[in-house]
Amino acid sequence: ESLKLKGGSLAGKSVVVTAGGTREPLDPVRYLTNHSSGKMGFAVANAFKNAGANVTLIAANPLITPPSGVNFIRVETAAELLAEVKQAFVHADILVMAAAVADYRPAKVANKKIKKTADNQTMTLELVRNPDILKEIATIKHPGQLVIGFAAETNDLISNATKKIQSKNLDMIVANDVSQSGIGFNADNNQVTFLFAAGKQIKTNVESKAKVADQLINIIATQMQNQ
Ligand code: CTP
Ligand code: CA
């Protein structure tokens, strides 16, 4: 059962939301990416705006139009996302990382289109790790700043997500089962479990991403009032 949100309950708060999926270039015409559309992050940004917050929305390659009334920044790669998040977080009360960040990128980016050759039937790509944005944010986080992650899992949802709360020093994680079509990646609906650092869990029904976002904002507003 969700509480009705009092309008303006996050008035005066500065919020940074990330959305979409990063693209990691291989050459001028190709990149590695994932199935993130930006829909969940955009719904979260819009819900914060409706609650009266000042919202910076940093989006990696979204497939949909951003909400109006937010400070919108577009990025492509994980490295660009890291730089923008770090800069915006300094003045923020809350960060919600809904973006699907590529864990690896091609070790070399060719400046010309890579050509296939007649004799090569296989090709091996070398990838290198991207920075973990949430782990970097944990090193500059002040007490009072809330940091919330998402966990995209196909299996062992709660145990995998719980480990991420600890390893990334999060206040909360939104555990998202991405194994079923109809919810999660690029779907209009979602079903998530909100997991708190202290161990409490709240599971939503299958609902529109807007309704899931409203529940997240309600929980955050309550947490901000209590601290
Ligand atoms: N994340 C991040 N920087 C990365 C990778 C992920 O900040 N380089 C953030 C995501 O935005 C998300 C959270 O970390 O909020 C969890 O992302 P997820 O991909 O589920 O977890 P990983 O830690 O990358 O672990 P794995 O993909 O191996 O499950
Ligand atoms: Ca990952």
From TrEMBL:
- Write the Enzyme Commission number(s) for this entry: 4.1.1.36, 6.3.2.5
Domain of life of the source: Bacteria
What are the GO BP annotations of this UniProt entry?
coenzyme A biosynthetic process; pantothenate catabolic process
What is the UniProt remark on how the cofactor binds and its stoichiometry?
Binds 1 FMN per subunit.
Could you name the Gene Ontology cellular component terms for this entry?
A: phosphopantothenoylcysteine decarboxylase complex
Name its co-factor(s). FMN; Mg(2+)
Which keywords annotate this record?
Decarboxylase, Flavoprotein, FMN, Ligase, Lyase, Magnesium, Metal-binding, Multifunctional enzyme
Q: Summarize where CTP binds, as residue positions.
A: D103, K113, P131, D132, I133, L134, F150, K164, K168
User: Does the entry feature the keyword Cell membrane, yes or no?
Assistant: no
Catalytic function, reaction form: (R)-4'-phosphopantothenate + L-cysteine + CTP = N-[(R)-4-phosphopantothenoyl]-L-cysteine + CMP + diphosphate + H(+); N-[(R)-4-phosphopantothenoyl]-L-cysteine + H(+) = (R)-4'-phosphopantetheine + CO2
In which pathway does this enzyme or protein participate? Cofactor biosynthesis; coenzyme A biosynthesis; CoA from (R)-pantothenate: step 2/5; Cofactor biosynthesis; coenzyme A biosynthesis; CoA from (R)-pantothenate: step 3/5
List GO molecular-function terms, semicolon-separated: FMN binding; metal ion binding; phosphopantothenate--cysteine ligase activity; phosphopantothenoylcysteine decarboxylase activity
Q: Which residues form the DNA/pantothenate metabolism flavoprotein C-terminal domain?
A: 10-222
Where are the annotated segments for Phosphopantothenate--cysteine ligase?
15-227
What does the similarity note say?
In the C-terminal section; belongs to the PPC synthetase family. In the N-terminal section; belongs to the HFCD (homo-oligomeric flavin containing Cys decarboxylase) superfamily.
Q: What does this protein do?
A: Catalyzes two sequential steps in the biosynthesis of coenzyme A. In the first step cysteine is conjugated to 4'-phosphopantothenate to form 4-phosphopantothenoylcysteine. In the second step the latter compound is decarboxylated to form 4'-phosphopantotheine.
The entry's protein name is Coenzyme A biosynthesis bifunctional protein CoaBC
Q: Which organism is it from?
A: Lentilactobacillus buchneri subsp. silagei CD034
Q: Which gene encodes it?
A: dfp
Q: Which residues of the full protein are shown?
A: 177 to 403 of 403
